Amino acid sequence: MKRVVLLGPPGAGKGTQATGIAEKFNILHISTGDIFRANVKQGTPLGLKAKEYMDKGALVPDELTCDLVEDRIMQDDCKNGYLLDGFPRTVFQAEHFDKFLASKGQQLDDVIDIEVPDSVLIPRAAGRRVCKQCGKPYHVEFNPTKVEGVCDACGGEVYQRADDAEETVRNRLKVYAEQTAPLTGYYKNSGILKAVNGDQTMDKVFADICKALGE
Ligand code: ADP
Ligand code: ADP
Ligand code: ZN
After folding, report:
1. Exposed / middle / buried, residue 149 (Cβ in 10 Å: 0-12, 13-18, 19+)
2. Burial label, 127 (beta-carbon count in 10 A; 0-12, 13-18, 19+)
3. What number is the average pLDDT over the span 137-155?
4. With contact defined as beta carbons under 8 Å apart, do 146 and 152 qualify?
5. Which residues, at least 6 apart from 68, have a Cβ–Cβ distance to it below 8 Å?
6. Nearest Cα residue to 31 out of 8, 61, 1
7. Per-residue confidence (pLDDT) for residue 215, from 0 to 100
8. What is the dihedral of CA 53, 113, 77, 27, to 10 degrees?
9. Are the C-beta atoms of 153 and 136 separated by less than 8 Å?
């Protein structure tokens, strides 16, 4: 039973690491970015609202995002714990979420901060490709699909996210520095923050996260 948050700038490798970590610890992987993208694709009211912000590389409003996640983690498939990928992203979200958990007699166990310098993040985002169907991330150079344009895991179509255009990535990095980076201080104070060097091979990053989580 573990409740874990994966923290790190766009392109740090959160999505890449999340599947394996969730599998190893038998917890559910919840990506707010994937949930928003699925809603955009289906044209739901939530998707229409989120798209305005996502297209600019801005954050979706806090209240909306908190409601979504707090609803999601109360479902049965989260009873054994979960790995949050991309949430919280503001101090408001972190505080709101902590209060919500406390009201249920729960708390977070670990926050893993994947650290990667901006100079490495830009080419990672520029070459990122994502499966339309299952959300699995690839990279044209660092982690290509076996067959071009086709997801290894599910056979879905692999595409480039609109918000991975260089100018939007730069804005997302700015938003991260301003609004999300302060979370490291917040969780350091709680004593549950563990930093991992994300500028290593994917296997090495995975091993370091497992170690930080106590395995
Ligand atoms: P995030 O979810 O944090 O935004 P992703 O997991 O989608 O990041 O990774 C961003 C891009 O960088 C993807 O194209 C991915 O294949 C690639 N990537 C992830 N981890 C590494 C790594 N350790 N070395 C090289 N490329 C990586
Ligand atoms: P990345 O993996 O590159 O960090 P995500 O897939 O997590 O990007 O997020 C894509 C977009 O979805 C964000 O730029 C933002 O607009 C929106 N989003 C995702 N999670 C949150 C959140 N917790 N709060 C606000 N907006 C979010
Ligand atoms: Zn897929």
Report:
1. exposed
2. middle
3. 97
4. yes
5. 32, 35, 46
6. 8
7. 82
8. 150
9. yes
DSSP SS3 for 193: strand
Segments in 165-201 forming alpha helices (H): 166-175, 182-190
Residue nearest to atom 10 of ligand 2 (CA): 33
Residues 42-54 have a mean pLDDT of: 96
Q: CA-to-CA distance for 133 and 136, rounded, in angstroms?
A: 8
Tell me the per-residue pLDDT of 56-79, one tens digit each, with 9 for 90 and over.
999 999 999 999 999 999 999 999
Distance CA 50, CA 145 (A): 29
Closest atom of ligand 2 relative to the 85 alpha carbon: 7
- Asked, as a colleague might, if the bond just before 9 is cis with ω within 30 of 0, I would say no
Neighbours of ion ligand 3 (CB under 5 A): 131, 133-134, 136, 151, 153-154, 156
